[in-house]
Amino acid sequence: MTTKKEDKSTWAIGGMTMIGVGVGLFFMQSSPILMVACILIGIGLGLLIASILSRKKEI
To answer: Who is most buried in 6, 32, 41, 58, counting CB within 10 A?
Structure first.
């Protein structure tokens, strides 16, 4: 019986979003728009990392 390996590349999206929230909290006092920008950057980087990781597993 073979065990199925789970694809954990999707964890990158959530992880990078959490990093974006953490970094955004530092900028919350200066500008709330920067917090939103950090969250969006975190989501974008997470999607990029997830696509790279899932692509490596296919090869």
So the answer is: 41
